[in-house]
Amino acid sequence: MTNAAVLDTSLDTFPKLLVRNSTKFADRPAYREKEYGIWQSWTWKEARDEVEALALGFLDLGMEPGDHVAIAGRNRPHFYWAMMAAQYVGAVPVPVYQDAVAEEMAYVLDHCNARFAIVEDQEQVDKILEIEDKVPGLKHVIYVDKRGLRKYDHTTLHAYTTVQETGRVKRDEYQPELDRLMNAATTDDTCVMLYTSGTTGRPKGVVMSHYNMLMTAKNSCEFDNLNETDSVLAYLPMAWIGDFIFSMAQANWAGFCVACPESAETMQADLREIGPTYFFAPPRFFEGLLTDVMIRMEDAGKFKRKLFHKYMDLAKKVGPDLLDGKPVSAADKMQYQIGKILIYGPLLNTLGLSRVRVGYTAGEAIGPEIFEFYRSLGINLKQLYGQTEACVYITQQPDGEVHADTVGVPSPGVEVRIADNGEVFYRSPGTFQEYYNNPESTADTKDPEGWVATGDAGFFEPSSGHLRIIDRAKDVGKMADGGMFAPKFVENKLKFYPDILEAVVFGNGRDKCTAFINIDLSAVGNWAERNNIAYASYQELAGHPKVMESIQSHVEEVNKSVAEDEMLSGCQIHRFLILHKELDADDGELTRTRKVRRKVIEEKFKVLIDGLYDGSKEVFVETEVTYEDGRKGSISATLELRDAAVVPVKVKKDAAA
Known about the structure:
There is one protein chain. The chain is of the alpha/beta class and 657 residues long. The protein is built from 21 helices and 28 strands.
C-alpha cells in the first residue's frame, strides 16, 4: 500500500458509519423509495433500526462471519440494509445482476459458495429454485415481496419482514453477540465481493475490504464536496461497483440520501420528482436522453424547432465557459439567460437534471458532442475513469478543468503510470484485495508492489497533464499499413447520432475498417411513424432503404471527423451493414453492463464480417436468439452490405514505427 492514510477507528467499517450517522444525522433522510406511486422515507435513525433488526434475524438463522450472502433485486432500501446487516455479523454481501439468467446466477452463487440469498420476489425465488441443485451450499433464501409465494415450501424460504420480526423479538438474546461481532470487525475485513462483467471470459469475484471502499469514499467525497445535504438516485445495478460506491460507500460516508425509483420503467419520471444533486450515469443513458430530446424536437412545430436550435447553438458556444468561470461577453451572458428561461431551464427540468450540482459519466468513453451538449446546458457533468478493481476511481476531472477528450487527473491517493506499450497502470487505497479463489488472475492483474494493469491504452496530455484513454489495450491494434486501429474512438462518434444505438468496428490487421450498426428502435420508429412508413419488426425497419441511406450519411460524416485526427485517420469505415437484431446480453453479445463482447460477435457473425471484406453486396445469415422467458429460437435475414465514402489521407512514412 502506497498510501499511508488511515481511517478513524470509529469510522473504519460500514456498520460503525451507520452508528455514527444514526446520531449525527439522526432525523435527516437516509433512504427514499417510491412504491405504488408514493415516496416513502426513512431517516438514518430508522435505517439503523431496520438494519440491526435484520442482522439479529440473520444470527437466528445461523449466519456466521465469512458467509457469502447473494443479493438479487432492483434497487431498494431493503437490499442496502441487507448488505449492511450482513456486514454487521461479519458476512460478505455478493450482489448479483437481477436480470441474470439462471445459468449466470448459478455460476456466481456456486463460485462464492453462497449460504444465503436475499432476493426480491417470486421471479427471483423461482430462479433460485431452478438452480438449487447446482448450488449445494445454499441454506436459506429470504424474499422481500411476498406476492405469489404463500403456497411455497417455507422450510428454507423466509419473508424479509419475518426475519426482522424474529430479530426484534430475540434482541435481548442476540444483541451482545451482534455488538461483539461489529466491534471485532476491522478495516481490513472484506466488506463486499463484486463480480466483473466478464467481457473476456467468466466473471471474477473482486474482493474489497472496508478500507478499500471507505478510503475511496472519503477521498472522492472531499474532491467534490459531497455532504449530508446531497441526494442521489440509485437506479444502476446493485451488482455493479458504481452503485456500491455511490449508494453505499459515499452515501454512508457523507450521510446523504439515497432514493430508489419504483421501477426501471418509471426511472425517468422518478428522477424528475427527486431532482438529485449528485448524479452518475453511463454514456448510454446520456445518449438515450439526447435521442429523446431530438425526437421531441422533430415532432415540435417549426417555430419551436427554430428557437431550440438558435439557443442551443449559443449554449454550445458559451455554456461550458460560463460553467468553468471563464470570461464571456455581457451580450452573450444576457442571451444565455434568455435561453435559460425559454429552453435550458424547461429542458433540464424535463430531464430531471435541474438540481444536479455534480454529475459524472464513466464505464465507456462518451462522444465529445454528447458530453458538450450537457455541459452547454449548465450541467456540471464530468468524466471519471475507473474500474471495479479500483473501487471505481482512478482519475477524475476537477472543476474548471473539464475536457471532452480526456478523463482527468489521478484521483486523490491514486498513482498512475503508463507502461512502454501504452497500457495504463495504477495503485491506490481502493486497489482490490484479490480475485476470489483465483490467485493466477490476481497475480496477472496486480503485481507485488500493488500496481494494477487496467487493460486500457492511454497517455497523459503534455499540455494539461490529463489522462486520455484511447481504447482497450487488447482492442488497439494496427491497420495493415501500420496505422493505429482504435475501434471505440469511431464507435463513440457513431453513437452520437440518435438513430444509432450500438456500433462495432472491425479492422485490426486489415487494410480497411468496416462496421456493424444497431439502429435505435425508438428513434427510428418515431421517424417512420412521422413519415407514414409501416413496419412490423426491428428487422424490417433496419432493412428499409431510407434507413440505410440515413445510416450511410452518418457513417460518412463520421469518416470526415475521423480523417481530421492525424493519429487515427486510417480508422474510417469503408463498408458497413445494419444488423438484423439488437445485440443482447441474453445472447452473450453484450455484458450485463452493456459492453460489447467483441470475440463473441466476431465468431457469431463471421459470415457477415467475411462479406464486408470480400465485397459481397448481400449476405444471408441465421442467428440463434434468447427470448425473455429463456426459450431459444432463431431469426434469419438477407442483409445489404454498403460502401461508404472515405476521405483520402496520406499515410506517414513513420506510421509503422
